[in-house]
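User: I'm curious whether this sequence folds into something compact or stays loose and floppy. Could you predict its structure so I can see for myself?
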Amino acid sequence: MLKLSSTARKHVIFLIFAMIVVTVGSAFAIVWIQQQISRTAQSSKALESQLAETSRKLRYLDERIAGYHQPVVLQGKVAGVLRPSVENQVVFVQERQLATGRSYAVSQPYEVSMDLALLDLNTSR
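Assistant: Here's the prediction. I'll summarize afterward.
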């Protein structure tokens, strides 16, 4: 058998010890990385399901808005309230300001002011 000097023996023992430490450390690192991947996958799954639910709600609201903007529905809401204007008719609109600060008549010609908060979309039910 080969006789190793004490310094060579120390180097070999240190090398074996370092290999064991690196192997054990790598094993723990692999387990930790797998746990992090699992946690990330679970949170991604939850976020994807939340996104799908939000998209479904948005599509539903888009369909309702599109339904309310159909010409037949809009005509039905003003039926019996509006009448055709007379050719020489003059209409005076007095500007008013509510406590909320919104103006419901405009002072400048050709300016449009429409507050969607005033629309009551539940009247057609």
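Summary: Residues 91 and 120 are 25 Å apart (CA to CA). Helices lie at 6-68, 71-78.
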